[in-house]
Write a structure and sequence with these properties.
Chain lengths: 315, 486
C-alpha cells in the first residue's frame, strides 16, 4: 500500500477513545461499532455497514466525519449508477468548444497532437465523488450509501478503489490517493453483495439498540424529556418492533416521537396519547390497525383508564 | 479493563505479557478450519485481516477479541450467527478443557492452552473430571469472583461462572439445574447477606444475581450439549422445510422466510439480466442530449428495460385435503405482492370466490383462514371439490379480464371426486392468459391415480410443478418472477 493509514492522532488511539469521540459529536456507538470504527482507521480498510433501515448507518459516517474533522464525501447509489456518475466524466461540451475555437483561431497551425493532449487533461475532467475522495489533498470520509441498490458491475468498479485506493483513467494514467480516506459502505441488505467486495471490507452489523442505549440516545437528542417518559417510550417502541409490522420504527422516529410528546407536554404515555401520536412511529395503514390493537391494549393496563371495549388481541 | 489482567485470562492463558499474535496463531487457524467445516467461506485474505485486527486490539478483552475476528471474518448476518455459535463452542471448550485438565491433574497451573491440547481434549467437555473432589484452590477462585463482582465486566463473570462449574463439579451434574446452581453457590460461599448492606451493597447484589444467571445459563447449555440436543449451526443454512401444517404457524414466520426469499430474488434478477439490461435506443432522449454537444450524438440514450411484473390470477383449492399448502402459498404471494403488478386471489371448493381483500387486511394466519372459510362461501353441500363448476364460474366471471400479460396459477390436487373436469373451459382460460401454471401439492408419484386428472389439465399449462415443501414453492416463485425474454 502506497500510504499508511493516518492513526497517530491521539483521539484515534484505542476503541474506547473512538467511542468517546463519537459520543462527543452526538453519536452513541455500542462497543462493537466503536471497535470496528477503530479498526477501520487502524487497518485502513473500508467498512461494510449492514442493518435494518433507520438504525444510524449513514449517521455513523457523518459522526465519524464530524469527530475526525474531515470532509464527508457522499455517493448515493441507485439502480443504474455508473462510472460517469460515480467516478469521473470527460467534459464533452468544453472539449468540443476547445476543438472548435482552436480550429477557428488558426486553421493551419493547430496540430492534432496539441489538441489531443489538451482536451484530455485535468482541465476537462469532471470529478465525481469517488475520484474526488481519492484526489483530495486533505483526508476525507467517503460514504457510499445503499450499495445494495447498484448493479453487480458497479461493485466490480469499486474493487480497485477499495483495495488500492487508486483510480485508473485510461487517458491520464493512475490517480493514487495521497491521504487515506475512511470508507464506509452501507447496505440495507436487500440483496447479497459479491464475495469480492465483502472480502475487501470489514463487516459491521448494526441492529436496533438495546433499551438502555436507546433511552440514552433519545435523552441526548431531547434532553428536556422526562426520564420516565423516555424509558416508557423506548419500551413501547420495542413492543412495536417486535410485532410483524411492515416498517418497524427507526431510531430517528423514536426521537421524533419524543419531541412530539415534549411539545404536547405529555407526562406519561397512556392509550389516548399513544393513539393520537401513533402516526409518527407507524406509517402503514395496516400496521396502524395492528399496533393499535396489540400495543394500545397493553397500555390500557396502566391504572385509571381501563375501558375494556375494543378488540381483543389474538394471541 | 485495560489495566491489569482480567481474571479469566489469569486462569486460561499466560496473560498479555507473553501475548503476541504468534502464540495464538495455530488456534485461530484451527478455528477458521472449524468455521469452514460449518460451511462458511473463510479466505486466506480474511484470516490475514483477522491477524492484522488482532494485533491492534487488546485481545485479553473477550468482547474485543471476538468482535475483531467477527468483523474481519463473518461478512453477513447469517455468518455472524454462525460465527458466534462456533466461537462459543470452540473457545469455551478450550477454556473448559484447560480447567478439566487442571482439575484432573490436581494442580493449579498457568499453562497456555495451545492447539494440541485443545484437540486432545476435544469431545465431551469435562470428561477428565467427575470424581467430585475439588482440588483447585477454591479460595483463589472465590477471590477472583468477588473481585469481578466489584469491577468486572459481564464477560469476566461469564467465564468465571464456567470455570466455577468446571472446577467445582468437574462437569458432573445432578441433572437438576436449580440444585447445581445452589451447589456452586454453597461451595463458593457466596451469600448475599455477607455483602455490605444499603446503597453500597446494591450493585454487588445485582452483580451476584448476574453471576448466578450466568451459572444457570452455563448449566443449561451443558445439559443441552450432553443430551445431544445442541442447536447445531448447519440447519441455519437450510431452507428446505416441510410446509407448515395447521394453524399454529404464524404469518410472521412466513414473512420472515419471505424476506430471505425476496433478497435471493433480488440477486437473481440482476444475474439473469446481465448486460442486456437496457432496451432499444431512445431517439428523443438521444436527440435532446446531443444538443449539449452541438448536435453530435455523443451520448446514446436507451430505454430502460423494466423487470417483468406479472399480473397474477391465483386460484387455490381450499378443500380439506390441501388447505395448509394453499393458505401458506397464498400468504407467500401476498407477502410478495409488491413484486407483482396486480394480484387477484380466488379460492374454490365447489364454487369460486375472490378473497384478495382478506390477505391485505389480515396479518394472522389463523384469522385469514377462518375468514376465508366463513365468508367465502365456496362450499355448497358436499364439501368436495368440483373443478368443472369452478371453471364454468371462473370463465363467466373473470376470464374477460385476462390478457396476454396475465398469469394464471392454480393450486390444487386436481382430484375431481368423479365429477366432470371441463378441461375444455380451462383450455379457454389458459388461451386468454399469457402463461398458466399448475401447482400440485401431492408428490408426483400420486398423480393420475384414482380421481386425479392432472394429466387432462397438464396439456393446457405452461408448466406443472409438484409443490409440497417450501423449497419447491420458493423455486417456483423464483421461476415466476425471473426476467426472461419470451
Amino acid at each position: 500500500m502506497a500510504i499508511s493509514p493516518a492513526s497517530d492522532t491521539p483521539e484515534l488511539s484505542s476503541p474506547e477513545a473512538v467511542g468517546a469521540g463519537l459520543h462527543s459529536v452526538g453519536y452513541l456507538p455500542d462497543e462493537t461499532t466503536a471497535l470496528v470504527s477503530y479498526l477501520a482507521v487502524q487497518l485502513g480498510k473500508p467498512v461494510l455497514v449492514e442493518g435494518p433501515a433507520g438504525v444510524g448507518k449513514t449517521e455513523l459516517a457523518k459522526a465519524l466525519a464530524r469527530f475526525t474533522g474531515r470532509e464527508l464525501i457522499r455517493l448515493q447509489c441507485y439502480e443504474g449508477v455508473d462510472e460517469a456518475k460515480a467516478l469521473y466524466e470527460w467534459n464533452y461540451k468544453k472539449q468540443l468548444l476547445r476543438i472548435q475555437s482552436g480550429a477557428a483561431a488558426d486553421a493551419d497551425s493547430a496540430s492534432w497532437d496539441a489538441v489531443q493532449d489538451n482536451i484530455f487533461s485535468e482541465e476537462f475532467l469532471l470529478t465525481r465523488p469517488l475520484l474526488q475522495a481519492i484526489a483530495s489533498e486533505e483526508p476525507v470520509v467517503l460514504l457510499i450509501d445503499e450499495i445494495d441498490k447498484t448493479d453487480h458491475e458497479f461493485e466490480a468498479l469499486l474493487l480497485e478503489i477499495l483495495s488500492d485506493f487508486q483510480v485508473s483513467i485510461p487517458e491520464l494514467g493512475v490517480v493514487e490517493a495521497t491521504t487515506h480516506p475512511i470508507v464506509l459502505l452501507t447496505s440495507n441488505d436487500s440483496r447479497e453483495l459479491t464475495e469480492a467486495l465483502k472480502r475487501r471490507c470489514l463487516y459491521l452489523w448494526l441492529d436496533y439498540p438495546e433499551n438502555a442505549r436507546e433511552i440514552e440516545i433519545v435523552r441526548m437528542h431531547v434532553p428536556d424529556l422526562d426520564e420516565k417518559v423516555a424509558a416508557r417510550l423506548v419500551e413501547v417502541i420495542r413492543m412495536v418492533r417486535e410485532l410483524d409490522v411492515k416498517k418497524p420504527p427507526s431510531i430517528s422516529e423514536s426521537i421524533d416521537w419524543a419531541r412530539t410528546l415534549l411539545l404536547l407536554g405529555a407526562d406519561r404515555i397512556d392509550r389516548k396519547t399513544f393513539e393520537d401520536t401513533m402516526s409518527i412511529i407507524v406509517k402503514h395503514r395496516t400496521d396502524m390497525d395492528l399496533v393499535a390493537e396489540r400495543v394500545g391494549v397493553k397500555l390500557d393496563k396502566s391504572p385509571a383508564s381501563i375501558t375494556g371495549s375494543g378488540p381483543r388481541p389474538a394471541v | 479493563m485495560n489495566a491489569g489482567v482480567p481474571a479469566w485470562a489469569r486462569f486460561t492463558t499466560g496473560g498479555p505479557s507473553e501475548g503476541t499474535a504468534g502464540g495464538i496463531g495455530p488456534l485461530v487457524v484451527d478455528f477458521a478450519r472449524e468455521l469452514r467445516d460449518e460451511g462458511m467461506s473463510v479466505g486466506t485474505s480474511e484470516l490475514l485481516d483477522a491477524f492484522d485486527a488482532l494485533s491492534t486490539v487488546d485481545w485479553t478483552d473477550r468482547a474485543a477479541f471476538r468482535e475483531a475476528m467477527s468483523t474481519t471474518i463473518a461478512k453477513s448476518q447469517e455468518d455472524r450467527t454462525l460465527f458466534k455459535l462456533v466461537f462459543d463452542r470452540y473457545f469455551f471448550r478450550a477454556t473448559e478443557a484447560e480447567a478439566a485438565r487442571e482439575h484432573a491433574g490436581g494442580e493449579q497451573g498457568n499453562e497456555h492452552p495451545d492447539g494440541e491440547q485443545r484437540k486432545g481434549d476435544e469431545g465431551e467437555p469435562g470428561e477428565g473430571g467427575g470424581d467430585g473432589e475439588a482440588q483447585i484452590d477454591i479460595d483463589a477462585l472465590r477471590e477472583a469472583i468477588m473481585e469481578a463482582l466489584e469491577n468486572g465486566g459481564d464477560d469476566t463473570l461469564r467465564d468465571l461462572a464456567r470455570l466455577a462449574i468446571m472446577t467445582l463439579s468437574g462437569g458432573a451434574s445432578s441433572g437438576v439445574i436449580g440444585v447445581d446452581v445452589q451447589r456452586v453457590r454453597r461451595q463458593l460461599e457466596l451469600r448475599s447477606q455477607d455483602l455490605p448492606p444499603g446503597e453500597e451493597g446494591e450493585d454487588l447484589r445485582k452483580q451476584l444475581q448476574k453471576f448466578e444467571q450466568h451459572v444457570r445459563r452455563e448449566l443449561e447449555a451443558r445439559m443441552i450439549a450432553e443430551t445431544g440436543n445442541l442447536p447445531t449451526a448447519r440447519p441455519l443454512n437450510e431452507m428446505n422445510r416441510a410446509l407448515p401444517s395447521g394453524g399454529t404457524q404464524d404469518l410472521a414466520a412466513v414473512h420472515r422466510s419471505v424476506k430471505m426469499l425476496k433478497r435471493a430474488m433480488a440477486t437473481q434478477g440482476l444475474e439473469s439480466r446481465g448486460h442486456q439490461r437496457t432496451g432499444p435506443i431512445d431517439v428523443r432522449g438521444t436527440m435532446r442530449a446531443s444538443l449539449e454537444t452541438g448536435g453530435v450524438p455523443l451520448d446514446l440514450r436507451y430505454r430502460p428495460r423494466r423487470p417483468r411484473r406479472p399480473e397474477l390470477y391465483v386460484l387455490c383449492d381450499v378443500s380439506t385435503s390441501v388447505t395448509s399448502a394453499s393458505v401458506f402459498f397464498l400468504s407467500i404471494l401476498h407477502a410478495l405482492h409488491d413484486s407483482f403488478k396486480r394480484l387477484r386471489t380466488f379460492v374454490f371448493i365447489e364454487r369460486v370466490a375472490e378473497v384478495t381483500d382478506v390477505f391485505e387486511q389480515e396479518r394472522s394466519f389463523k384469522a385469514a383462514s377462518e375468514k376465508i372459510s366463513n365468508t367465502a362461501g365456496v362450499a355448497d353441500i358436499s364439501g368436495y371439490t368440483d373443478y368443472g363448476r369452478v371453471w364454468v364460474d371462473f370463465h363467466d366471471q373473470v376470464a374477460a379480464d385476462l390478457d396476454p400479460r396475465s398469469t394464471v396459477i392454480v393450486l390444487g390436487d386436481a382430484r375431481t371426486n368423479g365429477r366432470e373436469p371441463r378441461a375444455d373451459l380451462f383450455g379457454k382460460v389458459t388461451e386468454k392468459a399469457g402463461r398458466s401454471f399448475w401447482l400440485n401439492p401431492e408428490p408426483r408419484l400420486y398423480w393420475n391415480y384414482g380421481d386425479s386428472v392432472i394429466g387432462v389439465y397438464e396439456r393446457f399449462c405452461d408448466g406443472v410443478f409438484e409443490c409440497w415443501t417450501s423449497k419447491q414453492l420458493e423455486d417456483f416463485v423464483r421461476e415466476l418472477t425471473a426476467v426472461r425474454p419470451r
